[in-house]
Amino acid sequence: MMNVDERIEALRKLMADRKIDVYYIPNQDDHLSEEYTADHFKCKSYMSGFTGDAGCTIITKDFAGLWTDGRYFTQAEDELKGSQVELMRMRQEGVPDPLPFVIEHTPENGLAGFDGRVVSASAALMLSKALQAKGAKIHMSEDLVNKVWKDRPAMPEERLFVLEKKYVGETAAERIAKVRKDMEDKKTDVLVLTMLEDPCWLLNVRGNDIPCTPVPYAYAMVTMKDVFYYIDAKKVPGTVAAYLKKNGVKVCAYEALAKDLAKLHKKTIWADLSTLNAELYSHIGQDNSIYNAISPIMHYRSVKNAVEIKNLKNAHVKDGAAMVKFLRYVKKNADKDMTELSAQNKLYELRAEGKDYIEPSFETIAAYQANGAMMHYTATESSFAKVYPKGFLLVDSGGTYKDGTTDITRTISLGKLTAEEKRYYTLVLKGHLALMRPHFLSGTTGNNLDILAREPMWDINIDYQCGTGHGVGHVLGVHEGVHGIRWGLPTPSRPSVPLEAGMIVTDEPGIYLPHELGIRIENELLVVKDTKNFYGQWLKFENLTYCPYDLDAIDVSLLNDVEVDQINEYHKEVRKVLTPYLSGKDLEFLKKATKKLKK
Amino acid sequence: MMNVDERIEALRKLMADRKIDVYYIPNQDDHLSEEYTADHFKCKSYMSGFTGDAGCTIITKDFAGLWTDGRYFTQAEDELKGSQVELMRMRQEGVPDPLPFVIEHTPENGLAGFDGRVVSASAALMLSKALQAKGAKIHMSEDLVNKVWKDRPAMPEERLFVLEKKYVGETAAERIAKVRKDMEDKKTDVLVLTMLEDPCWLLNVRGNDIPCTPVPYAYAMVTMKDVFYYIDAKKVPGTVAAYLKKNGVKVCAYEALAKDLAKLHKKTIWADLSTLNAELYSHIGQDNSIYNAISPIMHYRSVKNAVEIKNLKNAHVKDGAAMVKFLRYVKKNADKDMTELSAQNKLYELRAEGKDYIEPSFETIAAYQANGAMMHYTATESSFAKVYPKGFLLVDSGGTYKDGTTDITRTISLGKLTAEEKRYYTLVLKGHLALMRPHFLSGTTGNNLDILAREPMWDINIDYQCGTGHGVGHVLGVHEGVHGIRWGLPTPSRPSVPLEAGMIVTDEPGIYLPHELGIRIENELLVVKDTKNFYGQWLKFENLTYCPYDLDAIDVSLLNDVEVDQINEYHKEVRKVLTPYLSGKDLEFLKKATKKLKK
Question: Is A496 within 8 Å of B450 when comparing Cβ atoms?
């Protein structure tokens, strides 16, 4: 097996043969999924050694760089050690973004290369235009990493299943009709669905090609008459094939989309060029016109319907019961032979006991003390820390059940804490609580609310260097939607979007001190309607997550009356909701963990 | 004199003669100033009867509408009574924006009219394009209101003066060089300055054509070689003419800009099409190319330099001393024969005692009880309320001094308050205090911070229906800059802009209950650098305004410890800063008004 530097040299040889000056290796798959992809697509990790789920690698003849964002700096520093790969800290002063770097480092009349299947049409068009200005070109017809990567994992071939109406509230026929109405409104003839979640939502099917996300690798194309579903036939069991046929859906080979796109003439095609890959785009004839916009399904997915809400609340109760059992287990075993890995496995077990459980909604993060500072740290069989009865174990986890997807973080004190540790925990909790409280007018964006959660940390000049919250899918990706709770200037990929009733956001501020500690507290919140009056429609958040905060970690002197009351109300509710699902020592633990806090 | 309905009929006749279907009458002057303009330009008021400073009037053959925003709803309801003019409440559900309304109500092959000098090039281009799609056209060569308005006020002719370097910190030559550098960076040959404040800033001159804003009606055009200043020669005294000549500035007739624009060929012209009027734009030849962007001066104006900051702090101290004298006067005389008008006049007098005082920075709002609910209410000689020793007098006022411009609001209790009144006052104060506290990273926008001030009101489902804060000019307009503290989606005219050290914002949340009460508390805040660390450059606010809050109006039970401490710290500072400027009973009053609040 080659080490990272050897891989880079092998790639540089291939680049030299083709006169490629800069080779760009994103973290994406054929559908431009970024964060969760099949192992087959982990090219940027293979070429850099960095295993985190965001970023990209860029290679030139005398430079190799790994771009990633603040959540991963500590992890990347560790993983890049010993190779020539330089860490490019995204959004830090003086660090160029990857594509501008590619442009800058492609010489006049030079060549920039990438695999056209894992770069979006919009990025490729932008690159191509910018390079043209200096007489340079792009080379996108080859996947050079594939030629270096001998033991590359194959594409997954997991099987589809149908999610019945009782889980999703609408039939595929109803959803197809909804989408066709949108196509009509936008005067489009064809809708190409490229995001992996979109065909799943439309057809009420789920798959298992990506770890922790119940989706298959598939495209769909909707016309006013037909629905074509592009998927490897091996993944479609007979019952699902029959279900699809009954719904008028035509199953086609995964690779057939390129050919079908080439057959379109004089059509108005609704496609999102930021998720349609450059290779597929190249097959669309010039006599068509493109309506370049995110698919209407993104919005439908973000705004949950009443049946989905009823179901996902149910999922959260099951999840909360598993979490309470886990909290007790961890606190009890902190002074025994526990590790991050054994704790993590215990949590997988406890969640799996829940009715209709499918899988974890993402790889559990169980990070002890300083490991918690790596926002997306994951303990593995080969690398994990032992846990001691002091300090914090940060556990960020979730489950996908047939009735919903959960995402929760608790930072658990394992023994005596320092005053500083308690102070940090309490500040994070203050931010977390503050985001739950506002009443807000329709039209309010996550950009308007972020400061509520962030302020206690900013007050001591500490930032958690990531958004405060993201949308959550319904039996789909745990990160979903264009809405979110973030600060700063909106960007095209992170626009400012008004929150609407039915949307879910996570509320997860934190404090991460590299090499020291990591604290995060996360609940999911549902946007619900409040009163409507002279000023307009008011909204507020309803809490979805039921699991105690850690009373042992709170410095009550830092809380005001509003916060103390809020914690007590929450704990009363948690106790009420979870009591029927717990017994014996777990129930005793719940009572203790939710006892009234006094100032 | 005609009443409003008669004016509308007269206009309709002129429209019919020309076959104009819809006539659009904005609130703007030739420079697209909106809020503060000479009386000559108050066409939308003349045609509707509404005297507020924002909105527009639109007339068709069977409809007359006045568009304005939430700050003015109550005032507009009152003023439109008895005429046919309908109030169109902007940004309320179901109310179309004015230009879409014009488009919608211009029939196929019809004609929409307006005076091309008071509509921006960008708006005219948009209208023209939209109407073209239905075969309709625009008619913009005539000012029809001028033909109806017999006793229309003439254009003002006030005289210029020079603001010396000790007030502004930079010479005109230095400022011109700065701007030419920007022109070079953007590869432009010509910069057209259309906003009234821009030539003032560039040349360090001020005028007096607009009440309460020290600017003359003038344009400027900058090339790499010349600076042309378009202004009525009558306004330029000999000393100022000499000063301008010495700085290489060529004074030209105000009307000459159109001709000079027509002379440009094959140039790249930097112009802001949202402040360049459609008439002027029509003179620019097609062989030029337009770089359509806000002038670089907007940013320079927003970010105050060290000399400006030193000076404006001085202005705020003088202003605070006048305000304390005023507070004592008002509280003492509430049970005597005081009116909104007499209070207002007293405040004008007290401010005028300040060294280097020029004029009020805007018309003082002294609004008693329910009048305070009209956000931009002004008592006039013919209409004002008597004041009684109970409830609130809201006073929003400011001064322009040679060393700076101020803007402050205090809501003053005149006697016994109800528990509800105290509660509302305290909630507004809580919001006001909250916006002063944050530490924030460079990149933070006003859109991120607004909720801090707004939350206490939103918590009880009340909104103040306007932004929380705006920029303040330096011896220029009291409303300045594209930055501000606002919520919701950014718009082209109210974009999201990161706050920078040197920017000023006001902090002015409020509660306005129509026909009941109005409370607003306003300080000015300066953005200053805080520490720089691992996370980046931190910023925070420094308070600029020195004037006590009203201890008689605070319900201390609604405040937490942080808030009580903050009020006490502020009052200690106010006492320290203003003591040298007050004596006798005023000083006694200051001590009482800043005494320590106990929870």
Answer: no
Which pLDDT tens digit goes with each residue over B406-462?
999 999 999 999 999 999 999 999 999 999 999 999 999 999 999 999 999 999 999
How many residues in chain B?
A: 599
Distances from the Cα of A346 to the Cα of A412, B389, B555, angstroms: 15, 70, 52
CA distances from B169 to B201, B204, B502 (A): 11, 10, 14
Q: Convert A68-90 into a string of H (helix), E (strand) and C (coil).
A: ECHHHHHHHHHHHCCCCCEEEEC
- Cα–Cα distances in angstroms (integers) from residue A188 to residues A185, A249, A287, A573, in the given order: 8, 20, 14, 48
Residue A319: beta bridge partners?
A: none
User: Where residue B383 falls among pLDDT bands split at 50, 70, 90?
Assistant: confident
- Is the separation of the CB atoms in B493 and A453 below 8 Å? no
Nearest to A452 among B451, B461, B489 (CB): B451
CB A522, CB A396: distance < 8 Å: yes
Asked if B494 and B482 count as a contact pair (C-beta separation under 8 A), the reply is yes
Chain B nearest CA to A469, separation (Å): 15
Total Cβ atoms within 10 A of residue B133 = 9
Write out residues 74-93 of A within 8 Å (CB-CB) of B: 92-93
Render the burial of A364-378: b for 16+ CB within 10 Å, e for the rest: bbbbbbbbbbbbbbb
Residue among A462, A489, A498 whose CB faces B489 most closely: A498
Residue B593's pLDDT is 98
Angle of helix B419-436 relative to helix B446-458, nearest 10 degrees, comes to 160
Give B185's pLDDT tier (boundaries 50, 70, 90): very high
- Residue A114, classed as helix, strand or coil, is coil
CA distance B84 to B101: 18
* CA–CA separation, A436 and A449 (whole Å): 10
Q: How many CB atoms lie within 10 A of CB A250?
A: 12
What does the alpha-carbon distance between residue A431 and residue B42 come to, in Å, rounded to a whole number? 48
Residue A180 backbone phi and psi in degrees, to 5: -65, -35
pLDDT band with cut points at 50, 70 and 90 for residue A487? very high
Taken as a whole, chain A contains a residue count of 599
Q: Which two tokens stand for residue B480?
A: 């300045």
pLDDT digits (tens, 9 = 90+) for A360-413: 999 999 999 999 998 878 888 888 999 999 999 999 999 999 999 999 999 999
Residues of A in contact with B496 (CB under 8 A): 447, 489-490, 496
CA distance A78 to A70: 14
Tell me the backbone φ, ψ of residue B70, rounded to 5 degrees.
Answer: -50, -30
CB A494 within 8 A of CB A355: no
pTM reported for the whole predicted model: 0.91
CA separation, residue A67 to residues A5, A64, A87, B407 (Å): 17, 10, 6, 47
Nearest by CB to residue A451, choosing from B452, B463, B530, is: B452
- DSSP character at residue B520: E
Amino acid identity of residue A239, one-letter, is T
Question: Residue B405 in contact with residue B399, Cβ under 8 Å?
Answer: yes
Instruction: Report the alpha-carbon distance of residue A248 to residue A226 in Å, rounded.
Output: 7
Using DSSP's 3-state secondary structure scheme, residue A394 falls into strand
DSSP string covering A505-570: EEE--EEEETTTEEEE-BEEEEEEEEEEETTEEEEEEEE-------GGG--GGG--HHHHHHHHHH
State the pLDDT at residue A72. 87
Q: Give the per-residue pLDDT at B276.
A: 98
A428-479 pLDDT, tens digit per residue, is: 999 999 999 999 999 999 999 999 999 999 999 999 999 999 999 999 999 9
Structure tokens at B81: 């009574």
